[in-house]
Amino acid sequence: MATAKKADAPAKKAAAAATPAEAAPAKRKPNAAFMKAMTPSAALAAVIGKQPMPRTEVTKKVWEYIKKHKLQDADKKTLINADAKLKAVLGKDQVTMFEMTKLVNAHLS
Predict the structure, then answer these.
(1) What structural domains does the chain harbor?
(2) Helix axes 97-105, 55-68, angle to 10 degrees
């Protein structure tokens, strides 16, 4: 009887190993609305460039600009201190990073 249990064990392990691969979720497809190329306003184009790009790329370019010019607040990292170019887009001297996305999206068409 002991040999029968040992013979069944590898078969159970092989079946269990095959199950997670089959149950792996499919990769998410990006939302088409986020991938649509948007044209920036003149004020936003001064920060990220004038070529049309998806919202995701716009956000990346804005963050590149913020980091390059060291505009993130030193004490509270969620705050962005606007320079002259960024103030034309944001309309304020200082905004939160969450508020920034909303304000930047208003400059896309």
Answers:
(1) 32-105 (1.10.245.10)
(2) 130
